[in-house]
């Protein structure tokens, strides 16, 4: 879980720095920069706010890659955790249950 925390912390640092960067470079307020980055990271992309400078568009493209990978990684860890918990519950129930003839008939 330590690698996940480091990855998420890195993403939060990138999000914070990118918010201030786009706010200062594009002349946006910080909330507009944050809004742009969150909408971009969620792959919604309304198009109401976007970087106008060509260099900033390249930075936004890099941010999109990092954001999508970060969100995908986070979803993967959450799903992995849920699957582990369900497997653990299933194996516990299977090891404590004694099979009988009715169980075999239901399996057929």
Q: Top keywords for this entry?
A:
108 residues; mainly alpha; Helix Hairpins; 4 helices; rod-shaped
Provide the helix percentage: over 70%
End-to-end Cα distance, whole Å, is 41 Å
Q: Order of SSEs, N→C?
A: HHHH
Number of beta strands: 0
Mean pLDDT: 87
Which parts are unreliable, with pLDDT below 50 for 5 consecutive residues or more?
Answer: none
Shape: rod-shaped
Q: Secondary structure elements and their pairing?
A:
Blueprint: H1 2-26, H2 30-41, H3 54-96, H4 101-107
Task: Describe the protein's architecture and organization.
The structure is a single chain. The chain is mostly helical. It has one domain (2-107): Helix Hairpins, CATH 1.10.287. It is built from four helices and no strands. It is rod-shaped. The mean pLDDT is 87.
